[in-house]
């Protein structure tokens, strides 16, 4: 069997570490940009046809402004600047919560529960042997009680790394196939894929949370609506603005998540073969998982972490390559005969 070791693994891990740093730096900046956009457009929504706005006595006092109207752009800048400490403080708090509670958040979102060695001794032994072979600390094990066949790795550090399997996968796959799946997820941990994806999931949630706050601000604040009606304007423009900013935030977060190369799945498949020396087991596991992996009750961010995330209507937004393509690569790695025609994508 040809050497299944991923080419340039050290470089791949270094790139993932760099991307993790960029994700941590990018999302707070993105949030600041959205807040600035929100206040700027809000100011223009209150402005007269000449682009001037009355900040009101409260804002005049806060910012030390002279009586009279000021340009809407200036008011937007002042409001954004005033919000900056809160945005940065909220981002720092979210990052801290993410690092401390990422396992609780993700496993809770997936409705997973921890399992013990007494419950699944064979599963523990399989994972323990794989970890010993690489001299790494054993991740925690979780299970999701569902007939779907799926699995994912999560965590940001040795203390929080975890591998989660569905009960359906444990029941339907044989020992070699389960070992192959564990090898796949363990490779995600060793390659630092899991850290990058978890950070993206956490910050996507932060943007969604910020969007929800904007919506609530203008849909439930009756005093604000009352003041708006006195001006004869209503709150519809602000509601639309909040929705637009929410959609922009989610779109940008989605695009960043999709920027995580689908190549990571090919690398994890190859890593499983390197760990187990059984390409046939990984192929068989993927064949059984295909068509039985859908878990609609799990948030989309967590589904993106799984061994299989069924494709949507647009392939552009797929987080995983097709299983048929992954199997074709595994057959090439293992020098196994092809089953019919398969597109073998480039993994370089």
Summarize the structure.
By secondary structure, this protein is an alpha+beta fold.
Report what the structure shows.
This protein is an alpha+beta fold and 348 residues long. It has helices at 9-45, 56-63, 72-109, 121-134, 167-172, 175-190, 193-220, 222-230, 236-258, 263-276, 279-289, 300-303, 323-333, and strands spanning 52-53, 70-71, 112-114, 140-144, 151-154, 162-166. Strand 5 (151-154) and strand 6 form a beta hairpin. Helix 4 (121-134) packs across helix 6. The protein is elongated. The two termini are 20 Å apart. Residues 1-7, 221-234 and 340-348 have low confidence and may be disordered.
Write the layout of secondary structure elements.
Blueprint: H1 9-45, E1 52-53, H2 56-63, E2 70-71, H3 72-109, E3 112-114, H4 121-134, E4 140-144, E5 151-154, E6 162-166, H5 167-172, H6 175-190, H7 193-220, H8 222-230, H9 236-258, H10 263-276, H11 279-289, H12 300-303, H13 323-333
Parallel strand pairs: 4-6
Antiparallel strand pairs: 1-2, 3-4, 5-6
Helix pairs in contact: 1-3, 1-7, 1-9, 3-7, 4-6, 6-10, 6-11, 7-9, 10-13, 11-13
């Amino acid at each position: 069997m040809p050497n299944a070791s991923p080419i340039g693994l050290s470089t791949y891990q270094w790139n993932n570490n760099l991307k993790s740093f960029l994700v941590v730096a990018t999302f707070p900046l993105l949030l600041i940009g959205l807040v600035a956009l929100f206040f700027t457009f809000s100011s223009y929504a209150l402005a007269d046809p000449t682009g001037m706005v009355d900040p009101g006595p409260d804002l005049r006092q806060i910012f030390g402004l002279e009586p009279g109207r000021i340009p809407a752009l200036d008011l937007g800048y002042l409001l954004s600047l005033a919000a900056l400490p809160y945005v940065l403080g909220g981002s720092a708090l979210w990052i801290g919560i993410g690092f401390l509670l990422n396992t609780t958040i993700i496993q809770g979102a997936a409705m997973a529960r921890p399992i013990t060695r007494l419950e699944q001794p064979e599963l523990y032994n399989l994972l323990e042997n794989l970890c010993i072979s690489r001299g790494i600390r054993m991740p925690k094990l979780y299970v999701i009680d569902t007939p779907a066949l799926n699995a994912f790795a999560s965590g940001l550090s040795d203390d929080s790394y975890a591998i989660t399997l569905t009960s359906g996968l444990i029941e339907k796959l044989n020992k070699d196939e389960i070992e192959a799946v564990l090898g796949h997820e363990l490779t995600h941990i060793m390659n630092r894929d899991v850290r990058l994806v978890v950070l993206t999931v956490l910050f996507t949630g932060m943007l969604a949370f910020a969007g929800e706050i904007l919506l609530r601000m203008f849909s439930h604040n009756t005093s604000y609506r009352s003041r708006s009606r006195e001006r004869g304007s209503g709150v519809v423009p602000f509601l639309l603005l909040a929705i637009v900013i929410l959609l922009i935030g989610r779109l940008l977060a989605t695009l960043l998540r999709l920027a995580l190369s689908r190549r990571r799945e090919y690398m994890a498949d190859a890593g499983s073969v390197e760990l187990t020396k059984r390409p046939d087991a990984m192929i068989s596991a993927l064949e059984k998982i295909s068509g039985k992996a859908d878990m609609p009750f799990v948030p989309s961010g967590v589904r993106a972490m799984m061994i299989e995330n069924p494709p949507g209507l647009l392939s552009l937004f797929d987080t995983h390559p097709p299983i048929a393509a992954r199997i074709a690569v595994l057959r090439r790695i293992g020098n196994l005969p092809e089953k019919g025609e398969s597109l073998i994508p480039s993994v370089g």
